[in-house]
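Case study 2.
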Amino acid sequence: MASVEAQAHITVSLATSTPRISLSAEPRDPVLLLTVRARCTAARPLTLCTANSVFDNGHHARHDGVFLGAFLPLISTSDPKRKIQLHFSGWPNYGSQPTASNNLLERDYLRFETVPGKGEGELSVTHEISLKKLFSHSDLKLENVKAGEKFTVRMSPKKLKSSWGWWSWGSLEGELKGKKFAKWDHPDSHGNIENLMPGEKMPDVKGMKRKGWVFSEASDELKVEAAEADEVVLEFSG
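Prediction:
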């Protein structure tokens, strides 16, 4: 069961080191760098699954957060109807994996990151977006954008957390190093596991913990919210 300390939350902010995007850049060269930063209000670090969230910049076996809707469409500051959609419309079919490992660290399509404790730094993840990627899923195309036109971009509120919801106190290089990440939540006060699938056998939680398994805290015990200033302004240049 989640501890009282789990009432802490994470604040997420968005920034860019590339506020000007060249329309004449090579199609596959990164022209937009979006950096997502997270700070924790608790003294202890915590580790969370980041798959398909704003913290997922790829480097695994499935699509990254940009493809899956981590960011809202870029909106023109002069005409809100002019939008550049970054994400794929729909959900890719990855098929079923009935034999997937109960240890989430062994699933090659998941990512885990640590947010340092308060005053100890921050988690920083950068998305590199090329012109090709920027316009791949957009009805508004590169040739229809003019030099000097400005757009705003924001993180999707629905993607601040991973749909997996897995998180635990501790850091990947600290107390969680060498552990196995169980796919299940901690049992609640009645001994029930919230994300146990119908017909699935109840795991031996105590026995597994003795063998180095870590169970997730309850997903709703961790609040992840965007900072007040989470909008970035971008300008296209010739």
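The chain has a mean pLDDT of 92.
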